[in-house]
Structure formats: C-alpha cells, structure tokens
Amino acid sequence: MDNSVLNSTLFLTLLMVVGMLFFIRAAAKDRTQIVTLGSEQDGDQLLAALKQYFVDRSYQVDAIDAVRNQVLLSGQVRASVFLAVFLSLMAGVGALCLGLILTVSLPDVPYLWAVFLGFAPLAGWLYWRKASRVEQVSFRLDETQQPTVGSWLRVKAHRDEVEALQEALNLQVVDNDVIAD
C-alpha cells in the first residue's frame, strides 16, 4: 500500500479515536443547571405536586432550609444498559479500525487489532461506573406578587430531571443558567 495513503488513513483514524474518547467521557458528564420555572398554581398546590413528583421518582429529602425556603433531595441515578452496550460497541469499532491500520503499518505484528479490540468493554464499564451515582436536586419555591403568574420555582438539578419536572407539572421556563464544570 502507498505510504502516503497509509499515513493519512492512520491520521484520520487517530482523530476518530480522539473524538470517540471524548464522546465516551461526555456520556457520563454531570449536566447540572439552575432553572427558574413559573407556574400558574399557587405555592401550596405546587408544593404538593412537587412532593408527589419527587416521591414517585424515589427521591429522599436530605435537608430543609427554612431560612432560605429551600429543599435538598437526593436519589440514585442508574446507568443505561443500552448506552453502556452502545459505547462498548462504538469503542470496539474504533479500536478495530485503529488496530487494523496499525496491523497494515506493522506487518510484523499480525494480531495487533485483537489487542485493541480487547479494550472495548472498558468503555462500557467506565460509563457504568461514572453514570451510576447519587443525584442531588434542590429547589426553592416562592410565590410572586403578580396575580396572573401564581408562583415560581428555582431548581438546581440535572438537565434531564429539570425537563421531566417541567413536563410533568406543566411549568414554563423563566430563566436558565448552566453551571460550568
């Protein structure tokens, strides 16, 4: 095979491997955000709905700060079996590509691809270990002075939890802040 073709293929494969590593790392990244949500319900109705929502989602109350009118909850988040298998398969394809390119480049080591393929399950294991964690949610409920709005809720949680809460209780986003890692 032409040396320039082999070098360019190796370079592109290495770029793919770097992108794959960042994708696997980002799969379990914490995506906490602070969101202010508005509701047409009054404070007592919204608080009862919040209580039922978090009980249904298996969250436990860790702390209640009466001074700041804030509640801190925690719950166990499970990793996705589908995503763990998908990441392992994706890592396997990337490792196989890299191994095959290196095998063509280094014909003295004919089974180098098998060594790289052996590392593929490590991606799923790393995701599983990082994604299974205790998730914390905190919220502060305040009633506004405007009679048409009802009340607002300031929530600090993972973005998926915020979206599920917003959909379940029919809340509207008022303000959205993403917390940098």
Automatic annotation (TrEMBL):
Regions crossing the membrane: 6-24, 81-104, 110-128
InterPro entries: CCB1
Pfam families on file: CCB1
Keyword annotations from UniProtKB, A to Z: Membrane, Transmembrane, Transmembrane helix
Keyword Nucleotide-binding: no
Keyword Secreted among UniProt keywords: no
Alphabetized PANTHER family for the sequence: PROTEIN COFACTOR ASSEMBLY OF COMPLEX C SUBUNIT B CCB1, CHLOROPLASTIC, PTHR35302
Name recorded for this polypeptide: Cofactor assembly of complex C subunit B
